Predict the structure.
Amino acid sequence: MESTLTLYNTLSRRKERFEPLRPPFVGLYVCGPTVYGDPHLGHARPAITFDLLFRYLRALGYKVRYVRNITDVGHLEHDADEGEDKVSKKARLEQLEPMEVAHYYTERYHDAMRALNVLSPSIEPHASGHIIEQIELVRRILDRGFAYESNGSVYFDVEAYNKKYHYGKLSGRVLEDMLSNTRALDGQSDKHNPYDFALWKKASPEHIMRWPSPWSDGFPGWHLECSAMSMRYLGEQFDIHGGGMDLMFPHHECEIAQSTAACGHDAARYWVHNNMITINGQKMGKSLGNFITLEQLLTGNHPLLAQAYSAMTIRFFVLQAHYRSTLDFSNEALQAAEKGYERLMKAVSTLDKLKPSATSSVDIPGIEGRCRAAMDDDLNSPVVIAELFDCVRIINQVYDGHQTLTESDIAELKRVVRFYVFDVLGLRDDLAGDNSRMLSEVIDLVLDIRTQAKQSKDWTTSDRIRDGLGSIGIKVKDRKDGSDWEIE
Ligand code: ZN
């Protein structure tokens, strides 16, 4: 199978033709959520970006094993490596068992993913379920001389590693610069150097989540789980590792160091990073008061939101930007996305109503090639969407009788548009099954009949409709040229 896809590889800092190691199989690993809070806007972008990649790889005919982990242990509050465990802290505050917290927020995350039409990955491993693999990896790194034990904890020896390999090659950082920018150790630390990171941490007496290990009763460092679980399910070398740009340093840099220290080479061949979402030009953060959960977006219940937005509006909004550009969230941008999504869905349903002609006045065959070329060019979804809006224009012109298409061209247009809208972009037609829209159309129809009845002075029918609607809570208000209604 000839690969046509190119992806921007953060490691080489350029677009590369994607060639899988063992075609037709593709191994894809993406860092999943730390499950200690409600899913928010920041979760939506990587989930949708890698869903797009997953869908497109499958559309190209690859057999993709997509692994996306759940971090339920080891992600500490400060620098990911110091302070209290995020899941454990939530459990302490809410007087729950940490696994109750992890389970609850995992379910919330899944609900949000389903709403956004994000496909379930092939495997979704939990960090807490892979302690044995993580202990084994720590042992390998210790054996190869790239880690040291200190007071029951094990730290990665960045200096020793950097003498042989390059620590910082993904993020473009240089160890000497990092050293001058890191605060000095306070004398309490078990680390030899401030930039060393934990592979295994000895648990303090109050720390609830702990497992026995050769070094202490403790828990794995956050970076370790992804190296251990990608190795477990995708092997020592696999195709694509993805995640948000915010994870590039230290998380992904440390993953590369761990895998290289254990195996002598990088694990992932292509590193793909999505850019961040900003809110009215600002970074999203709890302290900035602009932190928006997905539930708040869906209900409109947040001071920054002018209205509720549907999950498909959010998905469309994310796909309208290239995954490597920043995406600025604002009510205006989301309202524009809502209109765009509705226009697209309306045109997709109009496709079924097109009447064929003997000849075509517009060109259809080029469309598929252009959509494919855009996706092949580092998943350029905004260009695909622009191509689809060209199709929307054609569909509407044919429907209005300003252009013509033959039967086979209509069939081709249907196939291409549906394939890119539903299979590749992963949009769902939430308007087709919208009962509230159907209900208002039915009420309008009934009121039309009532207006006719009034015009022919059939007061019995007219009153019966008004009273009947009133009895089920629909209030009819008469106007000069007809009537209005509202639900009481
Ligand atoms: Zn990770």
User: Anything to note?
Assistant: The chain has a mean pLDDT of 92. The radius of gyration is 28 Å. Residues 31, 226, 251 surround zinc ion (CB under 6 Å).
